[in-house]
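Input (YNCE-like beta-propeller domain-containing protein):
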Amino acid sequence: MGVVRVNVRRRIATAAVLAATVVLGGCSGSGGTATAPPTAPATPAPVAATDGLPGMPPVPDAHDVYADAGANMLSDAAKAAKPLVYVPHTKSGEVRVIDPATFATVGTYRLGGELQHVVPSWDMRTLYATDDTTNKVVPFDPVTGKPGAAIPVQDPYNMYFTPDGTSAISVAEAQKRLVFYDPHTWVQQGDLPTPDCAGIDHADFTPDGRTAVFTCEFAGRVAVVDVARRTLLRTIDMPTRNRHMGPQDIKLAPDGSVFYIADSDQNGVWVLDGAATHVVREIPTGHGAHGLYLSRDATRLFVTNRHEGSVSVLDAYTGAPLTKWRIPGGSSPDMGNVSADGAQLWLSGRYDRAVYVLSTTDGSLIRKIAVGDGPHGLCVWPQPGRYSLGHTGITR
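Output:
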């Protein structure tokens, strides 16, 4: 699926958005909801290279920060990689490697611990399997698909890279802090305690790269971080503070106008303004909203509803619901990504030892692949883009 630049896709009718959004005044843990016309997201001004985080690649298109991550827009480093899908397992302590052409498992690497995510490095030359129980990351060579020697890292539940590529960030969920490392030597650079952000886990960055927003799953809020100064700017409570399985994955809209935040307990997506100051509305999606992934042309946002076995498809600019895909049979869609050509959405089945491959055209199930126990942060590689911000492949 090629890159599409059609402005009409970005202007969904007001009536559609009205039906899909819920004003915050009507939100509560058990009460009803009310609807009202939402405020249209403001289009941000173009981001000049001088305004961005020093050293960060410039933003080429202020209306689509993912413009350089379109279908098959592979960097030289990504072109060298063998097309493979890496599936870490939290229960069986292994990474299974799948050939996406045949859907066959071509490697099983028992690394021990509780493997959470497979994370592409900023320069796209290494993949890291994160293990937060034995405090390590295991590098994989994407050219061969094979692992190397483990690297000591503090509590890496998840991992991100600053947009300038100078730091790897271990999201130390159990320790309630962010630990910064040199991404080449793995010497610790410093850390940032986040004591009021229980369950810190997922993140995304503003278009200028200066601000990061981390979700706090067990505190019902997000933490807003100054990237250059490594300081906590503020925390923002969600209108309903779910503390069991609250805020999960987070994704910046293509034009930078808002952040979308999946909330499993809320069964939907919160919409945070692009400056990360307040929540503006809520979008119901489905039971157990969890992972957020963009189509390759950045016009659609896929939301995995883990507890109902479905994927909601939203307009990536307005948040308007477009359709919902049901995965047949018992399913628990969790984490994954879109293939380089944009044709397939790969997702781990967290609770049923499976990986699902869906068509991004109509959501049909192409293949269900049996894997190990507890598949989690699945990484489809290679991915288009100039650089990686981490997680399972956030590229720009």
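The two ends are 17 Å apart (CA to CA).
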